[in-house]
Structure formats: C-alpha cells, structure tokens
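Data availability (excerpt). The following record was deposited with the supplementary files.
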Amino acid sequence: MKLSGPIDLIKKSFQFFFDKKNLIFFLKIYSPLAVLAVVSFFQSFFLSSQMRQLGTPESFLAFVQNPFFVLPSLGVGILEMIAGFWIGAAGIKAVNDAASGKTLQVREVYVFAWKKMWGFVLLGIVLFLIILGGTILLIIPGIIFSIWFSFSKFIYLYDGLGIKESLQRSRELIKGRFWPVTGRLFVIGLLMAIFQSMVSGVPFVGLVISPLLGALILLPSYFLYLELSAR
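Predicted structure:
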C-alpha cells in the first residue's frame, strides 16, 4: 500500500476536523485546556501587575513566597499538568472514535483516558528518556528513536498493549519504510507547527483557540498510522 503524501494527509485532516459533528466533539474534548490557558494568562498578568506595583525585586520576591500566593499557584500548576496528560490521552482516543465511526461520547472518552492516564504518563517518560539518551549519545540515534516510537502512544491506547509491546509494535510499523515515514513526519510537523504558531500569535484569541486545535494537530500522524497499520 502506497503511503499518502504529507500534504494529502494534512488536507484530509482539515476536512475531517472541520466536519460539523467532529468539530463539536473535538472542541468539547479540548475545551478544558482553553479554560486553563485563560487562567494561566490572567495569573501571569496578575504577576506582572504586582511586579510593577511593588517596585523592587525584594518586595516582589517576598510576595511570591507568601503561602497565600504559593499554594493557589501550586494547585493551578498541578491541575494544568494533570489536565495536560489526561486530555492528551483523551484527544488520541477521541480522534480514533471519530475516525472509526463510533458514537461520540465525551464522558466515555474521559473515563477511558483517566483509566489509561498513568500508563500513558509512564510511556511518555520512557519515550523522553529513550530519545534524550539517544540524542546525548550522537544526536542521530535520538532522531531514529523518535521515528521508531512515534506511533507508540496510539498503539498503547488503541490496542491494549503494554509499554514495551507498544514501543516494539511502533518500530515494526516503521520497518522497511523508515525514510518515507521520516519525510512525512518532518513535513507534517513543520507545517502544523507553522500553522499553530500563526494561530497562537493572534492576541488573546489565539490563546483560547490554540488549545482547541489539539485534535487537528494529531490527525495527520493518526491517518499515517492507519495507513501503516493496514499494510
């Protein structure tokens, strides 16, 4: 089976994402990230205004070390971290449900993602350490590992495999097509990064919209994963 080109995968992703039913579903899945982005923005704005009002670095340092500021800020930070992993897993599940023609249930997606989240986090840590280790060695191994294991999160959430098996399965999908897959992932990553930076650059509006595009950013790699899986 011949793999679709990166532009075709991106076009297909935009068409799929902006289908009315899919769009509403994806916006519901990712909306908590938009809310947290707004909270984070106002937190930063509050800090900036306090810095200007207090005048001196010493006064500002005393303010940020106050427990009445530290504890709420720490709580928001922990909430953002948990939400990031949870919704990251939920987004991958949501993309698969929509593409598979399943009944789109937001609650079901979140429940599934919560059950899988800690394994998903562990997989993310393992991937980070593998790629970091390869990069520290000679850079090239880090790039190779990132390509080999690029579909392991899809496999972990869809196929019910463990972390080691998901990594192995991802490498098997790439076998014999390393350079075609590398080229597609590079072009997809570059173009989607440019698109996302353009959206994020719109004052305030971009802050809200950018997190809502999580499924759109995932979709080209997901469709490539489907084509590799169908071999």
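Summary of structural features: The chain has a mean pLDDT of 86.
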